Amino acid sequence: MFEIIIFSLLVMLASLVGVFSVWKKAGALVERNLHFLVSFSAGVFLVISYGLIVESLHLSESNSSPIFWVLIGMVGIWFIFKLLPEFHDHDHDHDEKHGNKKIDPKKVILSDSLHNIGDGILIASAFSISSVFGIVTVLGILIHELVQEVSEFFVLRSAGFSIKQALKVNFLVSSTILIGSIGGFLLLDNFKLLEMPLLAISGGAFLIVVLQDLIPHSVRDSISKKHYLKHVLLFLLGLILMLTISNQFSHSHEEDAHGHGYDDEKHEIHDEEDHKDDEDHID
Questions:
Q1: Above 70 in pLDDT, residue 167?
Q2: Phi then psi for 137, rounded to 5 degrees?
Q3: Averaged pLDDT score across all residues of the chain
Q4: DSSP states of 8-73 as a string?
Q5: Which of 173, 184, 243, 248 could form a disulfide with 191 if both were Cys (CB 3.0 to 4.6 A apart)?
Q6: Sign of the dihedral through C-alpha 108, 114, 115, 117
Q7: What is d(CA 129, CA 151) in angstroms, rounded to the nearest whole number?
Q8: Residue 275: pLDDT above 70?
Q9: Would you list the domain boundaries of the chain?
């Protein structure tokens, strides 16, 4: 339990430190290029959505069930935020009068919260296998979480949040990983049942964010300011960076899982041989 909480807190703090460091070292550059960085975030979140959906398919015995939950995530988040009032501030109203619609950040916040709960369950599940497997899993989550939270920071700033507000929201959203990790430890069997639906729903939610908010925002900005190439290049950069990280994590995860499975197999063979020797001794 203690190591699960410690490593979950490490993911939270590392994400916040990463976001703060990016802004501290390149704050002026970030502020000047927020519209372009939304395209970068779109590429990152598109890969995250794909990864979550693929992971939910791996966790399910049939393909139809995860696809159902993906659709629930897409339709559900669209319907919920049609009913909720939009985020407004002075700059938001000013931009809308000039035809520049800002991103509604609530979808990103909810999608990432669900995703983090799923990550917490994954951490608890990994540590239930072994400490080494748990640490490898945490490292993989930590790397993609850093890129994801930085991308989320860009989106929140573009939506009109102050730097202080964006950092605070980033930290609060990151803290939802504790719900999954602590709940996963205390009620592993029950929470394991929630892992596939949560991953699929958050995958669908991220997909609708990318398709309905981030890409349209980039298209509007590229049309109005004639910066097509910059938007496309930053989108591809986010896509390639996150694909590279995801592939590295999945390879490490599979190798460690294979190693653990091999050890289990050796233990089973050894137990069978001991049992056979005992029977021969009795005879």
A1: yes
A2: -65, -45
A3: 78
A4: HHHHHHHHHHHHHHHHHHHHHHHHHTHHHHHHHHHHHHHHHHHHHHHHHHHHSSSSHHHHHHHHHH
A5: 184
A6: positive
A7: 32
A8: no
A9: 2-282
- What pLDDT shows up at residue 250? 60
Provide the whole-model pTM.
0.70
Instruction: Compute the Cα dihedral for 14, 16, 19, 22 and give only its sign.
Output: negative
Q: How many CA atoms lie within 13 A of 138 on its CB side?
A: 23
Tokens of 279: 């029977």
Share of the chain above pLDDT 70, in %: 81
Look at residues 12, 159, 183, 176 and name the one whose alpha carbon lies nearest to residue 81: 159
**Helix locations, 60-176, DSSP H:** 64-83, 90-97, 106-129, 131-158, 163-174
207 Cβ partners below 8 Å, 6+ apart?
A: 46, 49, 53, 70, 73, 74
Tokens standing for residue 53? 């959906």
